[in-house]
UniProtKB/TrEMBL annotation:
Name of the protein: Ripening-related protein
Entries under InterPro entries matching the protein: HAD-like_sf (IPR036412), HAD-SF_hydro_IA (IPR006439), HAD_sf (IPR023214), Pyr-5-nucltdase (IPR010237)
Species, as recorded: Rhododendron simsii
Positions with biased composition (Polar residues): 170-187
Residue ranges, annotated region (Disordered): 167-188
């Protein structure tokens, strides 16, 4: 019974899922890719939508108020195709400036914990970034713009999106789809947007449902303090990537995603303790030899 007791008392890890943003989180801000995104958004506003006045200021305001410029543009009445927007903004990016990151790949592979992407970007952009970084095999699934914003409310996750996420399920959260205001925290006088995105709570609710995530046992990595503060209110444990200073809504701060092990050694320690309990010692077995 002695060994039986030891096998039965395997400690339950504090975390069973790692939830990651992509841009400026899995790669650093100084890579310059996000700056290229902003340039393309400005060009889209000018060349495709005909906005001429105070474009930089409008872009900044919409991003601040709605989480993404796309969501803000839809809110104030601009009509455009989502795929056209993503093609213009992300389809022309110089992805070659991103280089493979074997250090991060090894860190992620050393953790036998679920790892999930949660991004406001479209799935093609996420795939391009992961491919350039060499991280395409590090994540169980991707929650992207397409998952959060299906064209029809009755088809929140079609077969194509299901294939993009292992173990995904349809959301049962009322009010999801394109006919909702994804920003319940926007001023009541502000126009509503049909786009579901971080940092608003309904995006997090959908992500939890799609990936079957328990927020109280999940670490959330993001470079946006607004996203992290919403995540904290929703029960997530939060990690601010790109900063060395904690603030309200932040549990851990990492200057670089490479600092995960130094900041969170307990992730590896809990795994090692579990292995020690499961395999407490090697037992020598005598094999009789007959001459």
């Amino acid at each position: 019974m002695e060994y039986g007791d030891r096998y039965q008392h395997v400690p339950k890890p504090k975390f069973d899922c790692l939830l990651f943003d992509v841009d400026d989180t899995l790669y650093p801000l100084h890579s310059g890719l996000s700056g290229e995104v902003t340039k393309n958004i400005i060009e889209f506003m000018v060349n495709k939508l005909g906005i001429k006045d105070n474009v930089l200021e409008l872009n900044a305001k919409l991003y601040k108020d709605y989480g993404t410029t796309m969501a803000g543009l839809k809110a104030i009445g601009y009509d455009f195709d989502y795929d056209d927007y993503h093609s213009f903004v992300h389809g022309r990016l110089p992805y070659e400036i991103l280089k493979p990151d074997p250090v991060l790949k090894n860190l992620l592979h050393s953790l036998p914990i679920r790892k999930v992407i949660f991004s406001n970007s479209n799935e093609e952009h996420v795939a391009n970034v992961l491919g350039r970084l060499g991280l395409e095999d590090c994540f169980e699934g991707v929650i992207s713009f397409e998952n959060l914003n299906s064209i029809k409310k009755t088809d929140l996750l079609d077969d194509e999106n299901d294939a993009n996420f292992k173990g995904s399920k349809r959301s049962t959260i009322p009010g999801t789809g394109t006919d909702v205001n994804s920003s319940s925290e926007i001023n009541a006088e502000s126009p509503k947007t049909p786009v579901v995105c971080k940092p608003f709570e309904d995006a997090f609710e959908q992500a939890f449902a799609i990936a079957q995530i328990d927020p109280h046992r999940t670490l959330f990595f993001d470079d946006s303090i607004r996203n992290l503060q919403t995540g904290k209110r929703m029960g997530l444990h939060t990690i601010w990537v790109g900063s060395s200073h904690k603030t309200e809504g932040v549990d851990y701060a990492l200057e670089s995603i490479h600092n995960i092990r130094e900041a969170l050694p307990e992730l590896w320690e809990s795994i090692e303790r579990a292995e020690e309990v499961c395999y407490p010692e090697k037992v020598a077995i005598e094999t009789p030899v007959r001459a």
